[in-house]
Amino acid sequence: MNAEYLVSFLREAKDIMAENREYLINLDSVVGDGDLGLTMSDGFLAAYEAVTEKGETDAGRLLYQAGKAMSTAVPSTMGTLMASGLMQAGKALKGNTELSPGQVAELFQAYLEGVANRGKAKIGDKTFLDGLAPGVEALKEAVEAGEDLPTASAKAAAAAQKGFEATVGMLAVHGRAATRGEASRKLQDPGAAVAALLMKALEKASR
Predict the structure, then answer these.
(1) What pLDDT score was predicted for residue 184?
(2) What are 175-189's pLDDT values in tens digits?
(3) Residue 80 to residue 161: CA distance in whole angstroms
(4) What percentage of the chain carries pLDDT values higher than 90?
């Protein structure tokens, strides 16, 4: 796999965010201002357009460029977090022109860390991390067990979806949802839904 694989992933991410724009808007309208679907569809579109047909062969530079483009296009809280994830992944993979399945897992571990560091959140705070972390863990475990990337990414997507569903029951710590206190436990977290969609995009790109 090379940088073209990452372009394919960003294309799938762009498409899946566009397809689920209204779904994300509806989820976010319950706990936020309802703009999440627009932010994610516009943000991943900008990320994809920044790297397509540019011929960049360095995986790290490609991801960093995508993140910078997203941060400019959607400078909202969630847009900045997603851009930070891409840029951190870019730093982790800088200098690589070929990617192993293990490095794809490293990419998403770095993405997770980039979002966590920027947002000052942790797993269990009812955020994007609660969707992505189970997906990353499943991806790493499958790759370490010697499974191919299509199989590993399918397991990652399933785990991320379960992580998103498990946000019901969690107490929100950040954002507008936190103002609801105990009532926030009944709600699904929109950020974790974005994480589940990203893992589905990975699954599609890895087929």
Answers:
(1) 64
(2) 767 766 676 687 889
(3) 23
(4) 78
